[in-house]
Design goal:
- Helix 2 runs antiparallel to helix 3 and helix 6 runs parallel beside helix 8.
- Helices cover 45% and strands 13% of the residues.
- The two termini are 24 Å apart.
- It is α/β, with parallel strands linked by helices and 375 residues long.
Length: 375
């Protein structure tokens, strides 16, 4: 890592400590922007970071403070001007073909307004969306794609360096009549790690369950062979087959027909035990990334939930809990279910908005300790 990249990574850590979600993708975008700018010019560095690392208006004051503290200088500013109100506009062109000669180009201000509206929508709690906004969020979730975290396989593959491959080395020597030539090397293959999603569909999660199941559909589209999905409530229902439908609306129709306990009660401890007894102990949870999307309102025995979470944590590679209420100001995990579960959770995140689901997708696809600490 060169000096510029190391400096930007350190700055991103400072931003994350201050509450700015400077994701690895945004850090990479800033490094790429600085390749075309002067790294010795504070103004260039400031605006490159502000345009790539900040996700919304709330991040700007924190960014300014961190920039001044980290680089020990004044914050370059432009003359402030009032920000016009954002008008949500949704442009849908599913069957758009080649533009006819002489046709009018889409106005630049319309494209900017649409992009701005999407950014605002990304941070909105899905429980407070209108029907049109919710439909747009559904469309954007369907476009989500996440790269699966990798795990080391027992099988080997040829490599330029690493461990010596005795079989290929000896075969090369024999082909040359016993003359010792270059050594052959090998390394372990990498395979995508399994992802298991358990989505709470009880009554207390009714405002979020549909969006979270659509996220599960998107995850299955990204990794159809390594992703499993279940619903939990008063019964455990495997939804992997229903969510394999290519069209998200068709998949959700099939899911609605398959779930018998939609908007019912919550027995997380019993359902988690059933999952581990029937599927997890036999292989689905072993070495997997397990995501539990629930608000933690346990109506059953909280101690049973704690015992099963400890059992799951021993089997899984990582346990992620997504609670939509975590993003609310002043929230504390005081419910019996959350108190019992949290000691056995590697990452406790929010799942209340499109932006939170995007961050969850990045977290699922990352094995880095930095991502877990940030979550």
């Amino acid at each position: 890592m060169n000096t510029v990249s190391a400096t930007i990574v350190g700055f991103a850590r400072t931003l994350r400590a201050a509450g700015v979600a400077a994701s690895p993708e945004r850090v990479q975008a800033m490094v790429g922007a600085l390749e075309h700018l002067s790294v010795g010019d504070p103004t260039d560095v400031y605006w490159a970071g502000r345009l790539t690392l900040c996700a919304g208006p709330d991040d700007l004051p924190r960014y300014d403070r961190c920039f001044a503290a980290y680089f020990s200088g004044e914050v370059p500013r432009l003359t402030p001007r009032p920000t016009p109100p954002v008008i949500l506009q949704y442009v849908s062109t599913p069957n758009a073909g080649p533009r006819e000669k002489g046709a009018e180009e889409e106005p630049a201000d319309l494209r900017l307004a649409t992009a701005s509206a999407t950014e605002v929508l990304r941070r909105r709690d899905v429980a407070r969306l209108s029907a049109a906004e919710r439909a747009e969020v559904h469309r954007l979730i369907a476009l989500l794609r996440s790269s699966a975290a990798q795990r080391r396989s027992r099988r080997f593959m040829p490599a330029a360096s690493g461990r010596i491959d005795p079989h290929r080395t000896v075969a090369a020597i024999l082909r040359r009549g016993g003359e010792i030539s270059d050594l052959r090397y090998r390394r372990h293959r990498e395979r995508p790690r399994r992802v298991v999603l358990l989505v709470d569909v009880s009554g207390s999660m009714s405002l979020y369950a549909d969006v979270l199941l659509r996220f599960a559909h998107s995850a299955l589209r990204s990794g159809p062979r390594t992703t499993e999905a279940f619903s939990v409530g008063t019964r455990l229902t495997r939804l992997t087959r229903e969510l394999r439908h290519r069209d998200p609306d068709t998949a959700m129709t099939a899911v609605s027909a398959a779930i018998p306990d939609w908007s019912g009660g919550t027995r997380l401890g019993e359902e988690l035990k059933e999952f581990l007894d029937r599927f997890g102990q036999r292989g689905l949870a072993r070495g997997a990334i397990v995501v539990i999307a629930s608000d933690g309102w346990e109506r059953g025995d909280a101690s049973l939930l704690g015992d099963q979470m400890a059992r799951l944590h021993r089997l899984a590679h990582r346990v992620v809990w997504a609670n939509p209420h975590r993003a609310r100001p002043g929230y504390e995990p005081l419910t019996a279910g959350m108190v019992a579960a949290l000691p056995h959770v590697d990452a406790f995140v929010a799942g209340h908005s499109l932006g939170a689901l995007e961050e969850l997708a990045v977290l699922i696809g990352s094995d880095g300790k930095e991502m877990i600490a940030r979550a």
